[in-house]
Design a protein that fits this description.
six-stranded parallel β-sheet, about 210 residues, 8 strands, single chain, Rossmann fold, 2 domains, DNA polymerase, domain 1, alpha/beta, globular
Length: about 210
């Protein structure tokens, strides 16, 4: 079995790091700030899309992204927490499956965070925003992860907290599970998958029992 995890809202709580860094970038560029809720609703999308949806002019988007990345690298480990279930989730999952990360977060930052929490060794592959041309919900991130793993396995699952994760799985023709620890509501997520669980640990327990 192969299990691919999203990061933000699935294994980690980086809301404070993300929201505060967005506000920092709007300060630096002397622009009107969005509400916290407007930022949070877009978490899961690539940064350039988030800024565009928050009203940043097209020609300025990448300047904002550059400012964001510089600041985020400085504060990400200080303002990011593991979700309570994450260590147990990965310990159990690694006992019966090959694990990977598929995220729209920058892969470099994702690796730094996982190393910071001493969890990186659980994963055989990490696909971040810079690794693909077409991010979630496109199938490319999952397909690239599976190609890198180079395994003959038909039992493949994507676990995430937003519709982007679930649509990515559907487009890549793999199974999906939604978790309620992040940014999607149960009502919304049920439209995209048959499996919705309280958190990643409950999802892994389901998969472990299913494998028996």
């Amino acid at each position: 079995m192969i299990i691919l995890f999203d990061l933000d809202g699935t294994l980690i709580d980086s809301t404070e790091a993300i929201v505060s860094t967005f506000h920092h970038s709007f300060d630096v560029h002397n622009s009107t700030h969005p509400k916290d809720s407007e930022i949070e609703e877009l978490i899961g999308y690539p940064l350039e899309i988030m800024y565009a949806k928050l009203g940043v002019e097209e020609e300025k988007v990448w300047d904002f992204v550059a400012t964001y990345k510089k600041r985020y690298r400085e504060i990400s480990t200080l303002k990011t927490e593991l979700l309570d279930c994450t260590r147990d989730t990965l310990k159990i999952a690694s006992s019966f499956a090959t694990l990977g990360i598929v995220t729209t977060k920058t892969g470099l930052f994702s690796k730094i965070l996982m190393e910071h929490f001493n969890l990186y060794d659980y994963f055989d592959i990490l696909i971040g925003r810079e690794d693909v041309t077409n991010p979630k919900p496109d199938k490319e991130p999952i397909e690239k992860a599976l190609k890198a793993l180079n395994m003959e396995d038909k039992d493949i699952w994507m676990i995430g907290d937003t519709k982007l994760d679930l649509l990515c799985a559907k487009n890549a023709n793999v199974n999906s599970i939604a978790v309620l620890t992040g940014y999607g509501t149960k009502e919304e997520l049920q439209n995209y998958t048959n499996f919705v669980f309280e958190d990643a640990l409950k999802a892994i327990e389901f998969l472990k029992n299913r494998k028996k």
